[in-house]
Structures are given as structure tokens and as C-alpha cells.
Amino acid sequence: MIVKPKFKGFICTTAHPAGCEQQVTEQIQYVKEQPKIEGPKRVLVIGSSTGYGLASRIVSAFGAGASTIGVCFERQAAGKRTATAGWYNMAAFEKAAQQEGLYAKTINGDAFSQEIKQQTLDLIKQDWGQVDLVVYSLASPKRVHPVTGEMFSSVIKPAGKPYTNKTVDFHSGKVSEVTIAPATEEEIRHTVAVMGGEDWKMWIDALQEADLLAPGATTIAYSYIGPALTHAVYRDGTIGIAKNDLEATARQLHDQLQELDGRAYISVNKALVTQSSSAIPVVPLYISMLFRIMKEKGLHEGCIEQMQRLFSDRLYAGEVPVDDKGRIRLDDWEMKDEIQEAVTQLWEQVETANIDELSDLVGYRTDFFRLFGFEYDGIDYDKEIDVEVDIPSLASKA
Ligand code: NAD
């Protein structure tokens, strides 16, 4: 099949297997060029197939030499439909891990369900005995509660009052003003149920009750804060309220894990182009200006550089540096005064006519297409390619 990008709103509905493989290979290459990490040896990554979770899995395996189990929710190819990018990423990751003799298995299904949790617990018990690090990196629009069966849908809205600001359609480069109505109490409750800490705690409780957490085990989940100009739609909005809940869960889990000498952390990461962040209004415009400034100052990072820094300079480098709320800050470069002041200046001036001059929208778009395996040099996108690709550990089970 010849695979080209196809869009439905913000979502790209196709993915290119060779491009996804290249993305994974480049991330692995980057990690191999960095000093080795004295870190965890058995790592479970929940949300392992794209974005920060994928990068966490790559750093664990290729930076620390860890065995990894990845949990994700991806779709394989069927008929004229390609698989999702995350499916191809997991296939490429496992193939590369096998070549290095690294244990890698993937569980594909709804991480919020009891069934997938049980399947993961059984696999850990059977293959490892215990786990040293649990990375929780889910980003999902929906969750079915495993006990009550209630279906929750998250929304990205301000809380309290409407919010108006600039936004960009990153395909056309059109800058416009968007007004978002505030969320209802019910929408806030739903968003907290999907993106808050309840499911993370369910995972850790289940692992701890089954005695599957190794002495000194660590768990980490990811959060975001960002600048004042996105606060209304992010940090003070529905998603930020859910992040407050996730952060409170980290503190609770940190206490709970003391009996194992374990630790639970939140890492506040940098804003990056992922499938999740591209759906948030205002944020893509901010990111494209942020990228321009950070690239100019030589401070730009992608998911893999961020996760490398998390493991090598924070989590596994002696005492873990945290802020006054106990959080690891990997957004330290994004939030530097000189960066934020420069972004604010651009923000005031930006409009459709000068967007290419004032922002790195081109870089944003390239990163977005690359999430789906497109726009890589050296790949002939006019060539037929087999879209049916196996994830080795899933194929061997079938
Ligand atoms: P992403 O969309 O790239 O990845 C989400 C992952 O979750 C994928 O592996 C997907 O398969 C998996 N997933 C979704 N629903 C699932 C389900 N029901 N069962 C199993 N797996 C499921 O997202 P991302 O941007 O890497 O976000 C990961 C975390 O990092 C989130 O907590 C997010 O808030 C946080 N974060 C993101 C940014 C950013 O700018 N992207 C910045 C800071 C923090």
C-alpha cells in the first residue's frame, strides 16, 4: 500500500511503518550516544507506545539496559487501514530490543480495565518476580471505571469563566481568536476521573498487594504547568485540576511506598508536540513560539532528551532534586525567565501574516507529521509498503 497522511480534524488517521521505525531508531541512537545509566533493571511503562512513555521505555532499555513491559492501546492494520503509529512504534522497539538481547514484551489493551492490570501482574510474576520502576504515562480522552462501569470523557476547558486567546490552525497557519466556554462541575469530575490519579493508584495498589514491587521501587507520572498565558486553558482549567489530583496521588503513593523504601514522583515535563498536546487549543501556538526561542538559544529538547535527563540527572543520580511541592522539574529550561519573556513578546505581535517569521510553526508541523512516520528524509513515500507489521511478543502469543 502507498501510505500518505490523511486527516480527520486534528487527528492523522494513517501512519507509515517505515517512518515510525525511523523515529524509534533515531531515539534509540540518541540514547546510545549518552553515558550509560545505573538505573532500574525491570521497568513497566503504562502508556508506552508514543510521546513521553515511548521515550521512557527507550531510555530504560537502551540507556539502563532494563527489561521492559509496555502497556498501550493501539490498533493493528486491517484491510485498507494502516495500524496506528503507536503500534508501529512498539513493533520497531521490540525488534531493536531483541537485536540487543533485551527482554521486551507489550500488552495491548485498556490499561484502565481490571483485565489488563491482571494480565500485566501475571506477566510480571511469571517473568520477573518483581518490578523496579513503574512509569505511568497515559493520556486518554476516555475511561470506563473498572468498578462502577461509568464512562468518563475528559474535556479541555477553563474552569469558572470563559477564556479568550489566540490560537493557530497549525495546518493552514491561520491565527485566530478562540473563546472557550467554562466547564461544568460534571465535566471537571469526568476529566479528573480520566486524567487524575485514581487509576495510577489502582495500578500501584494492585502491584503492591501482589508483592510485585521490588524493595526501593519507584513510580513516576508526568505533569505540566506552563506559562501564565496558557494557565486558563491548562493549569487552572479542567486538565490542571486533574493534574492537581495526580500530584496529590504522588504524595500519597510516596508515603505508601515507604514500607518498601520506595518512592513516587511527579515529573513536570516540557511542552512538546504529541498526539495529546496537539488537541489543546492555544497550546500549539505557544509551542511553536517556544520552539523558536529554545532552538535559538540551543536549549530545545524533544521527548527523548527530556527522558534521558530525567533518568540520568534526576531519578538515578543520587538525591532527587524537587521543587517546594515535591515535583521533579524538567520544564526548568522552558520556564527560564529569558525564554518566557521572549515568548510573551512574540505572543503579543503574532498574527497570520507574520506567523512564519515569529514562530517555528514549520518545526511544529514537521514534529506533528513525524508522530505518524511522515516527513522523514530518506523514506520514499511514493513506494508501496506492507502495512501489516507484527509486534513480536503479541504475534508469538497469537
Ligand atoms: P501520548 O498521547 O503521546 O501517549 C499516550 C499513551 O497512552 C500512548 O502510549 C497510548 O497508547 C496510551 N493510552 C491511552 N489510552 C490508553 C488506555 N486506555 N489503555 C492503555 N494505554 C492507553 O501522550 P503524551 O503527551 O506523551 O502524554 C503522556 C503524559 O505526559 C500525560 O500525563 C501528559 O499529560 C504528560 N505531559 C505531556 C506533555 C506534552 O506536552 N505532550 C507535557 C508534560 C506532560
From TrEMBL:
<feature type="domain" description="Trans-2-enoyl-CoA reductase-like NAD(P)H binding">
    <location>
        <begin position="2"/>
        <end position="78"/>
    </location>
</feature>
<feature type="binding site">
    <location>
        <begin position="73"/>
        <end position="74"/>
    </location>
    <ligand>
        <name>NAD(+)</name>
    </ligand>
</feature>
<comment type="subunit">
    <text>Monomer.</text>
</comment>
<dbReference type="Pfam" id="PF12242">
    <property type="entry name" value="Eno-Rase_NADH_b"/>
</dbReference>
<dbReference type="Pfam" id="PF07055">
    <property type="entry name" value="Eno-Rase_FAD_bd"/>
</dbReference>
<keyword id="KW-0275">Fatty acid biosynthesis</keyword>
<keyword id="KW-0443">Lipid metabolism</keyword>
<dbReference type="InterPro" id="IPR024910">
    <property type="entry name" value="Enoyl-CoA_Rdtase_cat_dom"/>
</dbReference>
<feature type="domain" description="Trans-2-enoyl-CoA reductase catalytic">
    <location>
        <begin position="81"/>
        <end position="316"/>
    </location>
</feature>
<feature type="binding site">
    <location>
        <position position="224"/>
    </location>
    <ligand>
        <name>substrate</name>
    </ligand>
</feature>
<comment type="pathway">
    <text>Lipid metabolism; fatty acid biosynthesis.</text>
</comment>
<dbReference type="GO" id="GO:0050343">
    <property type="term" value="F:trans-2-enoyl-CoA reductase (NADH) activity"/>
</dbReference>
<dbReference type="GO" id="GO:0006633">
    <property type="term" value="P:fatty acid biosynthetic process"/>
</dbReference>
<comment type="function">
    <text>Involved in the fatty acid synthesis (FAS II). Catalyzes the reduction of a carbon-carbon double bond in an enoyl moiety that is covalently linked to a coenzyme A (CoA).</text>
</comment>
<dbReference type="GO" id="GO:0004318">
    <property type="term" value="F:enoyl-[acyl-carrier-protein] reductase (NADH) activity"/>
</dbReference>
<keyword id="KW-0276">Fatty acid metabolism</keyword>
<protein>
    <recommendedName>
        <fullName>Trans-2-enoyl-CoA reductase [NADH]</fullName>
        <ecNumber>1.3.1.44</ecNumber>
    </recommendedName>
</protein>
<feature type="binding site">
    <location>
        <begin position="138"/>
        <end position="139"/>
    </location>
    <ligand>
        <name>NAD(+)</name>
    </ligand>
</feature>
<keyword id="KW-0560">Oxidoreductase</keyword>
<feature type="binding site">
    <location>
        <position position="243"/>
    </location>
    <ligand>
        <name>NAD(+)</name>
    </ligand>
</feature>
<dbReference type="InterPro" id="IPR010758">
    <property type="entry name" value="Trans-2-enoyl-CoA_reductase"/>
</dbReference>
<feature type="domain" description="Enoyl reductase FAD binding">
    <location>
        <begin position="322"/>
        <end position="385"/>
    </location>
</feature>
<dbReference type="GO" id="GO:0051287">
    <property type="term" value="F:NAD binding"/>
</dbReference>
<feature type="site" description="Plays an important role in discriminating NADH against NADPH">
    <location>
        <position position="74"/>
    </location>
</feature>
<dbReference type="Pfam" id="PF12241">
    <property type="entry name" value="Enoyl_reductase"/>
</dbReference>
<feature type="active site" description="Proton donor">
    <location>
        <position position="234"/>
    </location>
</feature>
<dbReference type="InterPro" id="IPR050048">
    <property type="entry name" value="FabV-like_NADH_b"/>
</dbReference>
<feature type="binding site">
    <location>
        <begin position="110"/>
        <end position="111"/>
    </location>
    <ligand>
        <name>NAD(+)</name>
    </ligand>
</feature>
<feature type="binding site">
    <location>
        <begin position="47"/>
        <end position="52"/>
    </location>
    <ligand>
        <name>NAD(+)</name>
    </ligand>
</feature>
<comment type="similarity">
    <text>Belongs to the TER reductase family.</text>
</comment>
<keyword id="KW-0520">NAD</keyword>
<keyword id="KW-0444">Lipid biosynthesis</keyword>
<feature type="binding site">
    <location>
        <begin position="272"/>
        <end position="274"/>
    </location>
    <ligand>
        <name>NAD(+)</name>
    </ligand>
</feature>
<dbReference type="InterPro" id="IPR024906">
    <property type="entry name" value="Eno_Rdtase_FAD-bd_dom"/>
</dbReference>
